[in-house]
Amino acid sequence: MKGKVIVITSGKGGVGKTTTTANIGSALAMMNKKVVLIDTDIGLRNLDVVMGLENRIVFDIVDVVNNNCKLKQALIKDKRFEGLYLLPAAQTKDKTAVTPHQMKNLTNELRGDFDFILVDCPAGIEQGFKNAIAGADDAIVVATPEVSSVRDADRIIGLLEAAGLNNPRLIINRLRSKMVKRGDMMDIGDIIEILSIDLLGVVPEDEAIVISTNKGEPAVTDSNSRAGAAYKRIARRITGENVPIESLDEGNFMERFRRMLKLAR
Amino acid sequence: MSSAVKILEGEKIINLEIYDTFMDMKKGLKEEIRQNQKYRLGDKVNVYIGYKNLSQKQIRELEDILLDYGLHLKELMTNGPPGQENSFFLPQNEENAGFPADMPEYEETALIRKNLRSGQKCFARGNIVILGDVNPGAEVIAGGNILVMGVLRGMAHAGAFGDEKAIIAAYRLIPTQLRIANHITRPPDGEVIMVNTPELARIRAGKVVIEKLKI
User: What are the chain A neighbours of B133 within 8 Å (beta carbons)?
Assistant: First the structure.
């Protein structure tokens, strides 16, 4: 098995990197893929909380790179899905506890056992970011339809390209179609025009995400969640399936048609 | 005037008013002298330029051309208001302005074949041509002119060593800030005006002005 290492990053904090990692990982596991999620946000770990696995942590990523334990010992098996594992970050250390070289070795070791290795990147462009992208084959950039988020995403894409990750794909998170319609929010076309990268998916704003995050249940497990459905489609696209980008609301025919044209640009 | 050259009371006048750019003017002048036999070495000629204004440097260039053929400039005849020393004057259709005739020339030109993203910076002693977009947060700094064959949304600084004749041209000009020599401008606050044509920024009368660019 030759797994693919995908880093999920954004530059700006709070746009939904961790939520995206948790949901895409769960959705891939639901498709019977073997998936491991790596939290590289050492000192500010969250992915374990979102996954509801916090109380199972014994060893973490820093223990692994320092050879305090075997890699297998630190991997936490998910409570819902067969084939889904989490490698948690350390909370008591900081980003300098791991080097990019160690991260590369770590991801290479995991490639043999998993189909997908999803790396949850910390906010910022410093050591934590450099660690997270070190072993990656592919990158997913998460941005919300806000000018500040798009600006940071642009910066991150530049840094990814400089590091040889040439075709990052974009997830637009927390889109409120009503606000876009009123012209109060950047629309997908505006964002794509500035960032000029491929769109991997659009996730609508969904209050259910807050509830599922707090409960430690990824939204993809809730069949009524719109965001969860969007993440499932994104996961299918990651496996190479051709899933068209969905229209976000039930506007009239002409409007949907116009939006399709805009996306195709 | 249909004919470019007229003889009045024994004086020779060359009409350069018919040309739209200074480049054409120079070319036209050379052609007229070459094709006409009536000019003799040492002749003094008048040059008529109508309502157009030439800078001192441009007048000197015309004089140099005449001297190459052994002719002297007697008088520069204009209909324009005296005392103005603007660059080439295009009163009727400023919207159709091309690149200015007095745009500085630099030996070195850097060609950049990618989008400049936030945090990326490019610098050249001469001109910079970018085949892509310049996004907000990116910086382009050139000793000479800057040409962006995409959308300029970031900061561009032309004539960074003090060349006030340097220009910034872009397929779409929506910059966060423009700098030419030591002049710094930003778009006015408030409403964003969308212009769907290429534009050009340069210094006119001590101010950075933006004009539509017809290529």
Answer: 194, 196
Q: In terms of residue numbers, what domain contains B66?
A: 5-78
* ipTM for this prediction: 0.73
Residue B96 lies in a domain: no
Q: Which residue has the higher pLDDT, A222 or B17?
A: A222
pLDDT digits (tens, 9 = 90+) for B5-62: 444 556 778 888 888 788 888 888 888 888 877 777 888 888 888 777 777 778 888 8
How is the beta sheet containing B5-8 ordered, strand by strand?
A: B5-8, B11-15, B44-50, B72-78
- Per the structure, how many domains does chain B have? 2
pLDDT, position A192:
95
- Total-model pTM: 0.70
User: Which CATH number belongs to the domain containing residue A8 in this structure?
Assistant: 3.40.50.300
Q: Please tell me the distance from the alpha carbon of residue B158 to that of residue B202, in angstroms, as a whole number.
A: 9
> Over 90: is that where the pLDDT of A245 sits?
no
Contacts of B199 (CB under 8 A, 6+ apart): B169, B170, B172, B173, B210, B211, B212, B213
- The answer to whether position B102 is within a domain reads no
Structural domain containing residue A241 = 4-264
Partner residue facing A155 (CB), from B115, B118, B151: B118
- Probe site for chain B from A150, A155, A166, A190 (most B CB atoms < 10 A): A155
Encoded amino acid at A93, one letter:
K
Pair B71, B132 in one domain: no
B119 to chain A, any CB pair closer than 8 A? The answer is yes
Which chain B residues are within 8 Å of A196, Cβ to Cβ? 115, 133
* CATH number, residue B192: 2.160.20.70
Same-domain check for residues B131 and B208 = yes
